[in-house]
Write a structure and sequence with these properties.
It is a single chain. By secondary structure, this protein is α/β, with parallel strands linked by helices. It has 4 helices and 7 strands. The protein has helices at 9-20, 39-51, 84-87, 90-96; strands at residues 2-6, 27-32, 65-67, 71-75, 98-102, 116-123, 126-131. It has a 7-stranded mixed sheet, sandwiched between helices. The relative contact order is 0.25.
Length: 132
């Protein structure tokens, strides 16, 4: 387990850039945290680090999944039943891609053992990130 205290968005982006460089497919990154903690910012920075800074990365809140040539970005916030995860291609992505999952709790039974869990919480000095 590793912990990081990030005081601002720039530090979060720098951390995410370094983190991205360590990822190779297939791998699953589960991003945990309340609304506004920075899950989407981390995902966006990872994608732009690996696919180019000019890559447009909208939040997949309404589309549920966005794909970027070997990177899949899922937002499971609106998924109400785990059976929907098959329909949106989560299993296929986890077997083949770097898979970033926001709001992964509904998929917990499907996540591989080696999933990287990134927990983001509010901290007196900014955000605290814990990697498990």
């Amino acid at each position: 387990m590793k912990e990081y205290i990030l005081e601002n968005v720039e530090q979060m982006r720098a951390w995410a850039r370094d983190f991205a460089k360590k990822l190779t497919a297939p791998c699953v990154v589960a991003l945990h945290g309340d609304l506004g903690m920075g899950k989407s910012e981390i995902a966006r920075t990872v994608i732009q680090t690996l696919r180019g800074a000019d890559t447009v990365v909208p939040s997949p809140t309404f589309t549920i999944v966005q794909s970027y040539d070997g990177i899949s970005h899922f937002d499971l916030y609106r998924i109400e039943d785990a059976s929907e995860l098959t329909e949106i291609g989560l299993a296929h992505a986890m077997e083949n891609d770097i898979t970033l999952i926001e709001w992964p709790e509904i998929a917990r039974e499907l996540l591989p053992e080696n999933t990287i869990h990134v927990h983001i919480i509010q901290h007196a000095d900014g955000r605290k990130i814990t990697i498990k």
